[in-house]
Amino acid sequence: MAAVTYTATAGERSLLPAIPAGLRAAAPVTLLLVLGFLAPLLTVAAYAFATPKSFDVFRSFTLANFSAVFDPSNTVWMSFAWSLAYAAATVALLAVIAYPIAYGLNRMFGKWSGLVGVLFVFPLFVSENVRLYGWVLFFIKNGVLDGGLKWLGFSGGPEVLYTPGAILFGMLYVYLPFMLFPMSLGIAMIPRDLVDAARDLGASRLMIWREIELPLAMPGILIGMLLTFVLGAGAIAESKILGGQSVITIAQDIEVAFTYAQNWPLGSALALLLVAIVSGLALYVLSKLDLDRILGKR
Amino acid sequence: METRSQIRARAFVKIWTAFVILAIYLPIICGALAGLSKGRYFGFPIRVFSTEWWGKTFASLEIQSLVQNSLLIAFIVTLVSVVFAFFGALAFARYDWRGRKLFQKAILLPVFFPQPVLGLALLLWFNALGINPSWQTAVVAHLVWIVPVVTLVIAIQVYSFDPTLEEAARDLGASRWFILREVTLPILWPGIWSGALFAFLLSWGNFPLSLYTAGVDSTIPKWLYSKMVAGYSPMVPALGTMSTLSAAAVLLVGGLAIALVRRRQADA
Amino acid sequence: MSLATISPTLPDTATKTDDAVLPATAPVLQLVGVRKIFGDFAAVDGINVDIKEGEFVTIVGPSGSGKTTLLRMLAGMESPSEGYITLRGELINDVPPDKRPTCLVFQSLALFPHKTVGENIEFPLKVRRMAAAERKARALELMRMVRLPEHYYAKNVMRCSGGEKQRVALARAFAYDPDVLFFDEPLSALDYKLKKVLEKELKDLHRESGKTFVYITHSLEEAMVMSDRVGVMSRGRLVQIGTPEEIYTKPATRFVAEFFGEVNSFEVRRDGQGGWILGDGQSITVAPTDEVIGDTATVIVRPETMRFVTGPSTAGNLITGRIYNEYSLGSRMQYQVHSGDRIYLVEAARAAVPGLSSGDSVTIGWDARDAIVVGG
Question: What are the structural domain ranges in chain C?
């Protein structure tokens, strides 16, 4: 399908000189993104270079906030390391967890795949704190697991709550759909004929997967990985609710700087660094992908 | 043709999927149980079931105002985002214009962005503009994140739209407005409805953006969070369960409506 | 049948230089009572056919006739619900596609879009763990065979034209070195001219390689050009199978005759004295037939065997009518002639019919031997 441009009729041409229909249609969203996304980010960038613990934005210029971040005596860099490590672990584990499900949604569940898909979408509409708090009720002392095991005569459940592992678990739980659905779109891009043809040419299951399915599903898988990495790097609710402050993530540091500490310049510098890492990665991956193909243009 | 290893693989995928679905809904069930227990503090197995806390939640004036806030925000967000996203989706998937590829990628950035950081950045921006955060600013914050998502949802429908239909209508003498009303919109309705459903539900359940940008106004997820951190009572899981059930009901009704629209299109 | 029995090179083409001296060989592929049932619908409903070594057999039929399902069963992507498929005497009903020495060229061609021309062709060789240098040499050899220039080796396969993609798909199938090649209308998406070129090339390739080809298509014209034998399918059954000549001159049923192209067909009944009469009682002389036919039948007369008659005529059948319209077929003309409530199509060389035009009264005639009686 080739996208087709409107050729404006003579009457329209005099009213709307030379503005393509696409640009006009894009205008509202573009305006929203400029005012609601770009401008806030620029504000953050401006604050990042203001005098620490002040509100002198645009009137002072200093790199003090950044040197504070990289000061080894400060523990902020630890939060960065934790957040990025958590994000990386989430990506790796979710890729393994989601792949069989994404494959099933495309190739095995048949008429049930719609329902199964909805079951995986629905949690997105329940705020993550409610869902995470459910796990607190499950894992807490005398909670569903502990109390249930005791009731059955065991000595009680393991103490997993408020540990670094619980945070990772919570992240896997919350971000699963963000890995699953792009991955599923990616697998949907593999024409059935190609798999049949490879098999007909003698390829084993493993070889078909390695040579045909994985490379062709890669755009979708990459988007899922990118999405979960970005969301994981900015995660905050998991550590607050399930982690009980056992690990401080970078988003938490930013929050503290913006709220209790009232050190907006430091918070901005942290946010700017996080954004730089995340958007650098996002732009790099997105530049490799053709969205028309992934979303269904034939 | 099924070989034994294929049958094994199929069984593995099914069992694994069932297991993960179970894990996804387990905490939601735990919350529902906690909201129905009589005791002030949660303990399992539950000794006495009671709807006492559901009743208290319903009666609470504070919670009524939360629900009103959440609904108001969700409705406005739905309305605005569908209009914005409809045109956005046409620009995304329908028209061929210079800058389309850039637009496609720019629109993804808010989605590919940690929401707590986005919320904090918006807080800073509102402050710099001298705007006091309130539920209105929360609407703006929700829009920044939800409009791109809804644009993608509608764009998927637009991709399946054959542009020669519009050309044919134009060739038959229809005006642009007439084409929009008679050709484009009816074909895109299922996508638009899906987009609206997404917008409402994502706004209804949003926590990180509301937390930082709603100011003194509170929404259901924001209030729940404050009580989780300090001041637990069974009203927390009760309200959480109610919110989840409402979302499920909206999804069910909305999903059926969309299925109906699709069926009517297929039958007509 | 294990893959090890397949030699990695083409068989010696010298063993099959002339069809006439070939001994009558056992069938390479044998189908006995093959059925495929989906739910309560028999997509393939009892096929019996023997395909000989080195034969080019084409199955034609309209869409929904079951030909694709039949091919998928032969290639191993479906298993038959009933009946037997044997390859060189071995039952292969449930042998998966990767374990049979056969290869399918898909309608979509199913080229791997993320691989180059060379990588596509080498895929089956890589499956067999052939060394890289050897693979490349073999791929280049196959590219020469299908007339692809050598520098295409590193070309992205999606950048190739439609005809080039066909050649890549063919080379890839040959790289697998199958005993039997299956084709699922691979030429259907090409323009007419290119299709004609590739049809002939495919037939040449068949002759040079000596492999057995089974081809399916909905175009009888395509089938006629290439095949040793043509089978016509309808509603899951093989209605007729024979040489192109037999199918053309002795269609077994009205379906086969009409599938071939535009024909004049008349419903007739017996007149009680060994002849046939039309519905309005007019008698019609026909070619003698060996077939056992009931009391009613259909008479088929091809437009090209009808002619305009001006003077006295030897034609066994004569009809007068009026020309309703005329159509140019290039070197030939076709006329629609109305007579009573019947419509006749008459085809003639352009030079043979001077000055006829719409509205003219004409007499048309045809010989008894050109009127073929078929059942149904």
Answer: 29-254, 263-375
Among A150, A145, A184, A86, CA closest to B23: A145
Strands (E), B100-152: none
Question: How far off is chain A from B114, nearest CA to CA, in Å?
Answer: 5
Residue of C nearest to B2 (CA): C96
The chain A residue lying nearest C107, using CA atoms, is A193
CA-based nearest distance C127→chain A, Å: 6
Amino acid present at B53? W
Q: Is the dihedral of CA C301, C305, C307, C311 positive or negative?
A: negative
B103 within 8 A of B209, measured Cβ to Cβ: no
Q: What is the residue extent of each domain of chain A?
A: 75-294
Number of Cβ atoms within 10 Å of the Cβ of A30: 19
Instruction: Determine the CATH number of domain C263-375.
Output: 2.40.50.140
Give the separation between CA A221 and CA C15, rounded to whole angstroms.
Answer: 52
Beta partners for residue C90, in sequence order: C87
Contact across the interface for A44 and B5, Cβ inside 8 Å = no
In whole angstroms, what separates CA C369 from the centre of its chain? 26
Residue pair A31/B190 in contact (Cβ under 8 Å)? The answer is: no
Q: What number of other Cβ atoms are within 10 A of residue B134's Cβ?
A: 15
Distance of CA A114 to the CA centre of its chain: 23
The verdict on C113 touching A (C-beta cutoff 8 Å) is yes
- Alpha-carbon distances of A146 from A154, C282, C317, rounded to whole Å: 9, 97, 99
The answer, for C142 touching chain A at a CB cutoff of 8 Å, is no
The CATH topology of domain C29-254 is Rossmann fold (3.40.50)
CB contact under 8 A, B91 and A118: no
Cβ within 8 Å, pair A23-B147: no
Number of CB pairs, chain A paired with chain C, less than 8 A apart: 58
Chain C residues touching residue A214 (CB < 8 angstroms)? none
pLDDT tens, residue order, chain C (376 aa): 343 333 334 344 334 444 444 445 678 999 999 999 998 899 999 999 999 999 999 999 998 899 999 999 999 989 999 999 999 989 999 898 888 999 999 999 999 998 999 999 999 999 999 999 999 999 999 999 999 999 999 999 999 999 999 999 999 999 999 999 999 999 988 898 999 999 999 999 999 999 999 999 998 888 989 999 999 999 999 999 999 998 988 888 889 988 878 889 888 888 877 788 887 778 888 887 777 778 888 899 999 889 888 877 777 888 889 999 989 888 888 999 998 888 999 998 877 777 788 888 889 999 888 888 887 6
Pick the CATH number of B59-267 from 2.130.10.120, 3.40.140.10, 1.10.10.10, 1.10.3720.10: 1.10.3720.10
Tell me, what DSSP letter sits at residue B240?
Answer: H
- List of chain C residues whose C-beta atoms are within 8 Å of the C-beta of residue B1: 76-79, 94, 96-97
Q: Specify the 3-state DSSP secondary structure of C160.
A: coil
Q: Which residue of C has its CA nearest to A199?
A: C98
| CATH number of this structure's domain A75-294 | 1.10.3720.10
Residues of A with Cβ-Cβ distance to C3 under 8 angstroms = 202
Of C367, C363, C242, nearest in space to C302 by CA: C367
- Cα separation, A227 vs C81, in Å, equals 46
Residue at C271: amino acid letter: D
- C-facing residues of B in 152-171 (CB < 8 A) are none
Q: What is the ipTM of this complex?
A: 0.88
Cα separation, B149 vs B84, whole angstroms: 11
> Which pairing describes strands C307-309 and C296-301: parallel, antiparallel, or unpaired?
unpaired
Q: DSSP 3-state assignment of B81?
A: helix
Domain edges within chain B: 59-267
- This prediction's pTM: 0.82
Dihedral sign computed on CA atoms, order B154, B158, B161, B167? positive
